[in-house]
Amino acid sequence: MIPDWSRLAPNRPLNPGNEAYVPRPVGAPRIADWILAGRSPLLVVGPVGVGKSTELAFAVQALATSRFVCRIPLDRVENMRTLTAERALLQIADVIARGAQHIYKIEISPKLLNELELATRNAPLGGEVSQQRNAEDLAVLIIREVNQKSTLGHVALLIDGLEKTPPAPAQLVFDALQRLLFKTEVELVVVVPWHAAYGPGAETVIGPGEKLIVVPPVEIEGTAGSEGVAFLRTVAIRRLQLDQEAIAQAPTDFGQPGGVLDQCAQWSGGIPRSFLQLLADAASYARVTDSADWPTLSHVAQAVADQRESFRRLLTPGDDAALRQVDGTDGRDMALDQKLRMLAHGVLLERHENGQPVMRPHPIVRFLI
């Protein structure tokens, strides 16, 4: 069996129910656990590609029997660089209304639905929404109606994509979500950018009592490293839909200890997307340079070189020294703008070691500095 390497799809988060989902190694409580424990709002932050969207998607399944739960991936339907609070609220209202009708079989007031349809159709992409009720009023009324008619718990909104929004418009969306909390009984889980987790803006993002959850890279070194590497190996095998027979037919250096899968895991820094990208790139090099069906360690080296070059272009004067200085600390002494930039691009990773946050350069970046 020759693997279909396109199934790795590094930039495509899994949807709820996808059989390729692999639970992360046991660690901090999961998103759904906090909601079930009554903690809302929840702010979720983590490196690009660490699996925030996938974890959010699978929290939907865990909450489905106790909440009217809606996952709202704003970045799939909106331009996040020009997103307004009005557009975000309309998307929220629309997802709730469609979920009520088609999934939970709850009837929504025809008048409200007509107003929502009109508002959604006429809403400009970058400006105010103008109609009888504004977007916030529509969202509030729809949430209240669903809460009243739902046989499950209150509405729980899992909002994804805001980490891609610039600080100023993102804050307007956060303010709008805060007003939803005050006006309705709603539980919120929101993926937020790093600038919402550090510095003066991190004091209160959405509302009092909010909890910040950091989704850290998977541990691939130390005592927990073997479990993390095994997790990443399983992620690849499930995405590729490989059975034991197919794995047995693979070249010996593919799945053996220290082989292709393990090397991709080690160089990934524990970031699932980086791991999948390295493996996909290695497979591409195998086909292009050697007309081979399976990548070898030499192809992994070529894939690592590509990522190293990408990281090199991201580094600016002074970054090397700053990365060496912050390595192994909690990062509080690093210049805020520099830290946020490096965290956003995955140059710097916030890990949890012995229960404490620790800053580490990405393994490929470490090679550069």
UniProtKB/TrEMBL annotation:
Organism: Cystobacter fuscus
The protein's name: Uncharacterized protein
SUPFAM superfamilies the UniProt entry points to: P-loop containing nucleoside triphosphate hydrolases
Highest taxon in the source lineage: Bacteria
